[in-house]
């Protein structure tokens, strides 16, 4: 009787669509390639997984196999989220092919990547549903690229990060902001070109903005912060660390419950500082 009911079950005996493909969500990129090499059946299973994969986030993998850059561009056709920050193994052509083959892409993260400006060209033609674009520290980003994003994605982008992109200008950012009324989060840290005019434009054209990062934008003043506080009623987080702004302009935002990364000094100390600032200067 024992022999009658004894049987061996292998991994590939499990339903591919219902079990194996779901397990692959928890595997690393190297595991995908290793599993692909087991046999012909696993080879096609992995390709099937890539074909219908909607979320590809490689941000947590410091080392990626080079072969992955050759397979993914040809096999991925259903991506909605494509995140490869800090990755140097993807070439311009690989990124362009992936963007071109995935028209439903809504979230693109190329932060800290070493690409060329042309890598974003397929976005204009293929991807009309873009909502999030993260290009932090992309030194290859140009004024023309920002203008193209502004004109070809009007009223669609909700989250944008251009922090540290030293190749862009304030005028291009202002143009972008004017055409993106649905912006909820905007990061512009480490941009010396940003001035008070940008803050005024953001406050007037982004009625849904909740998060703004202008850390280390050294040309921002109290005047710009005051105007921003007056017109932008939806902001919940403001990062101004490294900006030459005082509590005089930030206090109004704090009173509305806005979280600010710059520490608040006690009221008695602020009063003392104000007194010192009003003292007449000694003429030498």
UniProtKB/TrEMBL annotation:
The record, for PANTHER family, names: F-BOX_LRR-REPEAT PROTEIN FBXL-1, PARTNER OF PAIRED, ISOFORM B-RELATED
State the GO CC annotations: SCF ubiquitin ligase complex
Cite the entry's keywords alphabetically.
Ubl conjugation pathway
- Locate the F-box domain: which residues? 17-47
Gene3D superfamilies in the record: Ribonuclease Inhibitor
Gene source species: Daphnia galeata
Q: Which domain of life is it from?
A: Eukaryota
Q: Which Pfam families match?
A: F-box (PF00646), LRR_6 (PF13516)
List the protein's name: F-box domain-containing protein
């Amino acid at each position: 009787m024992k022999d009658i009911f004894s049987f061996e079950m292998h991994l590939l005996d499990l339903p591919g669509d219902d079990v194996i493909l779901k397990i692959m969500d928890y595997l690393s990129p190297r595991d995908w390639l290793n599993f692909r090499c087991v046999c012909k059946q696993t080879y096609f299973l992995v390709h099937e997984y890539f074909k219908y994969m909607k979320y590809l986030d490689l941000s947590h993998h410091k080392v990626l196999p080079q072969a992955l850059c050759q397979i993914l561009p040809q096999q991925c056709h259903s991506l909605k989220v494509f995140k490869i920050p800090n990755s140097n193994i993807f070439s311009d052509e690989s990124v362009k092919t992936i963007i071109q083959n995935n028209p439903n892409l809504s979230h693109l993260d190329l932060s800290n990547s070493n690409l060329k400006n042309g890598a974003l060209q397929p976005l204009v033609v293929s991807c009309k549903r873009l909502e999030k674009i993260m290009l932090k520290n992309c030194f290859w980003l140009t004024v023309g690229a920002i203008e193209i994003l502004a004109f070809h994605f009007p009223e669609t982008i909700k989250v944008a990060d251009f922090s540290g992109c030293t190749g862009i200008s304030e005028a291009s950012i202002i143009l972008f902001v004017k055409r993106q009324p649905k912006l909820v989060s905007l990061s512009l840290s480490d941009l010396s070109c940003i001035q008070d005019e940008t803050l005024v434009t953001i406050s007037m054209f982004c009625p849904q903005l909740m998060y703004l990062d202008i850390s280390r934008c050294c040309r921002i003043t109290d005047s710009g912060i005051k105007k921003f506080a007056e017109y932008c009623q939806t902001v919940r987080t403001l990062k101004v660390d490294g900006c030459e702004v005082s509590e005089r302009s930030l206090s109004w935002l704090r009173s509305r419950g806005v979280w600010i990364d710059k520490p608040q000094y006690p009221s008695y100390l602020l009063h003392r500082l104000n007194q010192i600032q009003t003292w007449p200067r000694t003429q030498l």
